[in-house]
């Protein structure tokens, strides 16, 4: 299977969805829908990853 451009994965998912092989999950995660096609996109993805790896205020205070 060869995927190209923005239609690659979308075509696969659309075809699998029509056969009932896709499970949609409601997620609140920017990284799920983030494309990394350019150096700027990569920098944005890296910034998101860095932000996630920082403990939030509650965790920083030892409250898990």
UniProtKB/TrEMBL annotation:
Query: Record's superkingdom?
Result: Bacteria
Q: Mind telling me what this protein is named?
A: MobA-like NTP transferase domain-containing protein
The organism is Pollutimonas nitritireducens
What are the leading ranks of the lineage?
Bacteria, Pseudomonadati, Pseudomonadota, Betaproteobacteria, Burkholderiales
